[in-house]
Amino acid sequence: MNTTRTTRRLQLMLASSALVLLVCILVVIGRDPTPRVEAGMVASDDSFTLMTAPARTGGGMEKTDLLYVIDNFNGILLIYRSATTGATTKINLVDGGFIDHLFDSIRP
Q1: Are 50 and 29 members of one domain?
Q2: Is-contact 8 15, C-beta < 8 A?
Q3: Residues 4 and 57 reside in one and the same domain
Q4: 48 and 18 in a common domain
Q5: Do residue 98 and residue 61 come from a single domain?
Q6: Residue 28 CA to its chain's centroid (Å)
Q7: What's the number of domains the chain is made of?
Q8: Residues 22-74: tens digit of each pLDDT
Q9: Are residues 47 and 98 in the same domain?
Q10: Cα(88)–Cα(92) distance, rounded to whole angstroms?
């Protein structure tokens, strides 16, 4: 009598854990496979550092982000703007140059 109760309890635990695993697998499969990069992320490797940030436009309805590319070895900063209007995305170079020149230009 005690063994049938134990067997049923084990079967119930096994079935519930299988159900939990099935739900987890379905959640993972249902996700969008394309990696997303959100504004505010920083990635660095070797001599390059990349940073994204949201950007404002003059009141337009388009979604824009900025990408800062820093060449740590040569001391160069490049800024790109990503603008999405409808189904098209454009990436344009906004500004850039040697970092020490950029800081020298703003000093009094």
Answers
A1: no
A2: no
A3: no
A4: no
A5: yes
A6: 17
A7: 2
A8: 988 888 887 766 655 555 678 888 888 888 887 766 665 666 788 889 998 88
A9: yes
A10: 13
What amino acid occupies position 25? I
Does residue 20 sit in the same domain as residue 54? no
Contact present, 72 and 48 (Cβ < 8 Å): yes
| 76 and 100 Cβ atoms separated by less than 8 Å | no
In this prediction, residues 61-88 reach a mean pLDDT of 83
Q: What is the pLDDT of residue 34?
A: 63
Host domain of residue 4: 1-34
d(CA 83, CA 60): 11
pTM above 0.70, yes or no: no
Q: Give me 42's structure tokens.
A: 């920083």
- Kindly tell me if the per-residue pLDDT of 6 is higher than 80: yes
Q: What is the radius of gyration, based on Cα positions, of the chain?
A: 26
Which residue in the block uniquely carries the two structure tokens 């590319």? 69
